[in-house]
Records
---
Amino acid sequence: MAAVIAGAGLLQPSQATEATAGPVNPTDPAQSARPANGARAAAPDAHAAAYPLDCKGAPQAVTATAEGDLDGDGRPETVAAVRCDAGSGTPPHALYVLAQDAAKDARPRVVATLLEAGRKQTVTEVTVRDGRVTATLLGYSSPEVPRYSPDTKQLAKWRWTGGKFRQELTDSSATGV
């Protein structure tokens, strides 16, 4: 049994992101913003960004990321699920979009907040495909629900439209998660 568990740890599925979704196509306009050497522009490093999340002195933790070109400019953005690292309990997440300025040594910057921590939801999965951000959100149907046992699950989707992110769809179901 230990060998099966160890083997499963080595065989992790690759994260489905637009940035790794297939071969490079030089005629694709979405891939045209490459450096002269043909390399792909690097997505912003989620661990190098400063987030507008007040953790009252506790450190912040990036728990999930996804990369892809969200605004069609040919350069990848990073979506980061961030929470306070409280050491216990289930602190809520915020979901941020990061961009990287072209200047050398520029830090990634937050360009949009998709989910505020005040919504008291937990992000369990985030992907970027075809310019759309999809996140699985766990939450609570009422204040009486214990904070260690979320009872709602939502699939939320956002797309860059008209100069800002718009939430396209949220499917909800009240389930024992």
---
Amino acid sequence: MTLMTERPTTSGTEPHSFEELLDALDELVVPDGYKAEIIRGNIVLSPWSKGYYRRVMELVCKQLEPHLPQGHVIDRSPFLYVFPGDERAYGPDIHAAHERTFETTSSHLDGEGLSFVAELTSPSSRDDDLTDKVLVYGRAGIPVYLLLDMQEKQATVFSTPSAKGYEARCTKPFGEKLPLPRPFDCLLDTAGFEPPATPPPAP
């Protein structure tokens, strides 16, 4: 099994299937400050969010909640969604799904129940958020994928899911309004997504 953080390390016996990888993930003791996902046949450990990301996630949830499809809820609690066809398991930063998706005793939730996902990039996760997740979320038919590039300070919405990922995208710098397509049909105001001002140096 490969555990990937900022630098890949190898540990234990190599799993032979996606199901074995999920079992290994369940048994894994994740270091404090990290979350674990399955990406490209590896268990990948990503650092937890910076403090101000909480503000950004809260702003997204508050704006989208009035526009959710009937029966869907939006959350930023940690849940693991599985995509068996692509042998992936992701824990998106923000996720909206039908209430019935959560009516299970399993910790592996059905990715096809999602209507919306959002990822806030970090230096270690940014490449996967921009590539692997665009493909997998689109293939799963998730209508809207919101990528908040915290390094470039811009927001991209991916829509029109297909077998090749997403066929449409729109990018706006933080501070502008980003149109979100169906099933939301609203404008996301990205004002307030910027990091806090750096405090002046001590005298």
---
Amino acid sequence: MKILALYTASQSRGPVESQPAVQLRAGCGIVGDRHYRRNAKPEEQITLIESEAIATYNREHQQRVEPHTLRRNVLTEGVDLNALEGREFLLGNIRLRGIELCEPCSVVGHLLAGDLTPPQVIKALLGRGGLRCEILSSGVVRVGDNIATHVTETL
């Protein structure tokens, strides 16, 4: 279970940029990202998506959607993000809490539309759109860092 890629966008609907590392601030978000602010809503601080979900979507719909297109911050491998809703876990050494599933919206529907209509895209990604999380501790995460889903009470 690890981080495959990190992405930020400095402005809403602006270009998404790949990052080798990002700084997370508890209660604020990712430094330099469009959602970063003091006392940010927990569900707006950071988003994760499974590489396996994107691969499944591509295989089922004969597409080549690149992970950054979905506008999530963290691309994961080997972790069931849906199972982390309501739970604490570690992204590298940073504590997060899964807040809610990050279901696809009309923006993603329109971005991926082609052979599928926007509503078909949204339906195809339901339950596979990732996880919205609250950042509980501050620090840096890097591509290649591990993800630990069994966090003990002593953290």
